[in-house]
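One such given next:
>
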Amino acid sequence: MASSGPEAPEALIATLEEARRQFLALVDDIRPDLHRYATRMTGSVADGEDVVQDTLARACFELAQHKAMPPLRPWLFRIAHNRAIDHWRREAHRRAEPLEAALELADDAALEPDNALAREQAVRAALRSFLQLAPAQRGCVILKDVLDHSLEEIAAELELSVPAVKAALHRGRGLLRQLPATTPDAAPARTATPELLHYARLFNARDWDGVRALLADDVRLDLVSRRKAAGRREVGVYFSNYERLDDWRLVPAWLDGRAVLAVLPGRGDGPPGYFIELQWRDGWLCLIRDFRHVPYIARDADLVLAP
């Protein structure tokens, strides 16, 4: 008879964790492009990473239901596109246009999208500019002009015909051309909250007992792409990783209107490598999201250091 003791659930968890590790290794090369796509679909670096996490969780679950490995790249982008639209609708940024709206223009040679000028325009556009485009237009412009996918690849990833892709590109590029170019104005100078400043001071002083004293009893940790933990005891172990390093310092900053902590090289002579997001409740630290293990996130992060 199979064992039903406490070792059985532990073995199952270990098996699932190993499968997760193998899956993340499998998609490692695709993940940065998924983030570039999701960031522009949502207009936010942090929200884009949420979409990537959601995409990979959905894909890892669905993969077990496939009898054969699907074409990995188009499959992941298709999931990411749908997850990004769901996120966009939940946040109520604007009213969505159905994907089918891309079919309203006929297939015409004038819509041929291989246009170096359009590519440069899309790469330089502010992240939130893409939110002005309907989902089909947004997806096609990002995939073609930012990530350089072919028309056929985009059609497979978004489940559209090639004529529909050309039409969406034509419309999306036209609208993007009318919007303000390049990056948005820098965020107005704002003062970091006392809690954030206090946390940064303790962290930079390596006062780990002082940092742990700020934790709520039910504090949660999301070490993005690596592990999650909950409770003072489990989350307290997280700080020991920073205790062993000396090549960093925390500086309060703003990202997408959110107060975060930018992580700078120890001497402060380089750009932020990533950021940490904190949430507080009644003066206690209740959530830590650390993006250390997704270094690609700094590529699109427009961090504005607090004065």
